[in-house]
Specification:
Length: 97
């Protein structure tokens, strides 16, 4: 089990909480809520050790399009980078709904 944390600049406020996905075989959940400051804070708990650089690349890509001040918790059970990006995009879309 590995825990990673990342911080990104943000310009927009998040108005509510969002939950997408489930923790299970090869999947993950994303919990998103308003941040207390003008940054996005991401906390990742993953069952797969040693992939911090991959997480960094996936999150860097996501945050080129998402600039909301959010506290994001990701609970991972071996999801692929594509699935991680999909769940993050689903969370962002749920905020707009």
């Amino acid at each position: 089990m590995e825990r990673l944390s990342f911080t990104y600049p943000a310009r927009q406020a998040v108005a509510r909480r969002v939950h997408v996905g489930v923790v299970g075989s090869g999947d993950l959940e994303v919990l998103l809520e308003p941040s207390n400051d003008a940054q996005a804070h991401v906390a990742v708990t993953t069952s797969v050790d040693g992939f911090g650089t991959v997480w960094q690349h996936v999150l860097d890509r996501f945050f080129t399009r998402f600039d909301a001040a959010a506290a994001i918790e990701i609970n991972d059970f071996g999801a692929t980078p594509g699935m991680v990006l999909l769940r993050l995009e689903q969370a962002a879309e749920a905020l707009r709904a």
